[in-house]
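We emphasize that the prediction below concerns an isolated chain of 625 residues; any contacts that depend on oligomerization or on bound cofactors are therefore not represented. The input was used exactly as deposited, without trimming of termini.
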Amino acid sequence: MSLLGLVKKSLFFYWRTNLGVLLAVMTSTAILTGALLVGDSVRYSLRMTTVSRLGRTNLALVANNRFFTAGLADKLEQELNTITAPIFYLRGIVANSDGTKRANKIDVLGVDNRFFNIGANKNPFGDDSSEGIVLNDSLAERVNVTVGDEVLLRIEQPAMMSRDIPITPDSDLSIAFRLVVKAVAGASEFGRFSLKANQIPPLNAYVPIQWLQEKLDRTEQANILLVADDANESITAERANEAVRKSWQLADAGLELRRLDKQSVFELRSRRIFIDEPLTEAATNASDDAVGALTYFINELRCGNKSTPYSMVTAIGNPADSNHFIPMDIKDDEIIINQWLADDLGADVGDLLELTYFNVSPMRKLDEEKTTFKIRRILPMQGPAIDPDLMPDFPGLADANNCRDWDKGIPINLDKIRKVDEDYWDKFQGTPKAFITLKAGQAIWANRYGNLTAVRCPLSDKPGEQSYESITAKILKEVDPASVGLYFQGVRARGIKAGNEATDFGQLFLGFSFFLIIAALVLMSLIFVFGVEKRSEQVGMLLAVGFPPKLVRRLLFIEGGILALLGALAGTAAGLLYTRAMIYGLATIWRVAVSGSAILFHAKPSTLWIGASAAVGICLITIWL
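Result of the prediction step, given as a token string:
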């Protein structure tokens, strides 16, 4: 009888012992392979989550609390020769029609067809994108609605300036709409879109961007811009940022350059009230005669025992014109007031004037401070000093017909407002009642949002000089758009990197299962050893009939190797089955255990080969020892 024939006979004759060895090998292989498959599945799930979050998105420009013109997307699309998509992003709340189910802190996205072209090439709004709302599947499940149901959407009202600035009004912080659900978007309809590298499905509500812009009086504005990669994957963040530098305009930074014929100046002002410092520096460098201005809301102007409530005071730079109403030699501790204020306070040149005002602090904290100036000059109530355009468009103040109608974000005691104050507002609006040097004003009123509210450049009589186009070109050339939040980030590369650098769950689960694998191997070796001891008569007979000890040992090793191979094959199959079942459970009935994160089963052939080979090798070493 041949050696293999003897091995075959022994395997069947001692089947009970060999079955125990086979099951032990199968158990250890299943645990080992299953742990590696979990790692494969987690890595695959991370990659697929990135794909479902971003679609074909390669780069993203996120302006946060700033807004740029949606037309920037069209310019960049031509410059980069790829699809771009503007998004109007806000936070909001959605509830079902009877208010019994509600989801807070959802992402409200104003989008158009270009957004879905970057994602799934399927627009859930269909042919009618004029109104309605699309919820992603996670949000629809949260509020228990489906297609055709009505929902209440409440979104935050975007402010022209940061909510941290005290003068920002508290009213109208949100606005509500009743909308009909037109579709429920799953991952295949770009319903999982998110720029955050988070495995938890987002709560997204999609509305037409044009509808949202009209409702919020933000025509042609957006605050997120997506760029899809081209066929050659050649669009880098550096290339896109260079395209922004070529394409951006003042309006993309929230700036407006307007011509004031009455004052004979071009004036640069910001929708955000305060102009960012990089922009103010460029604007003042755009003309040799440029003058910066910082207009501030003052709580009280006091001279002796008399006071005037709630007024505008402007800090202005030294003009080049010696005939200007601001003297070229004015000192930083001096102030110029108009005749109305002088009459109201009974003030005269040389008197001390105390200014009381709130300083800008983070988190809407109000710090009331006081500064005293010496009156240098009193200006008549006509001429260039009577200029209501110096007051910025403070929200809640600039559009008020009466000073008692101010919609303020700071505590204003309306009882302090007198009839003469109302008359001044009716006649002169927000015309400043006093002027100080720009250096003095910036020392007490400059903040992290900017140190100017306007920059003025005098009109020139010479053709081609100080034109709208020349001033605009000089500012755009000098300012890096990245300094005002207009820059792209490689969100796809970042997402892939985050997935690659994530915890190796294969090694983690292997570590968790280490003692189980060791226990299975110990059990297998004990069963094998006990089996050999039970076969002592067979071993003795083989030695007695002339089998060398090495050959007998080889016979037993071959038997063990066959059992290890068969056990590894069965264990690999068992590992596949139990890993698939476990991941299915985590994706369904045990979803809470992974906080709702999507996890998909994925098995790489190389992982199965490595798991089975490692199991066979370890078992053979254990048997040999």
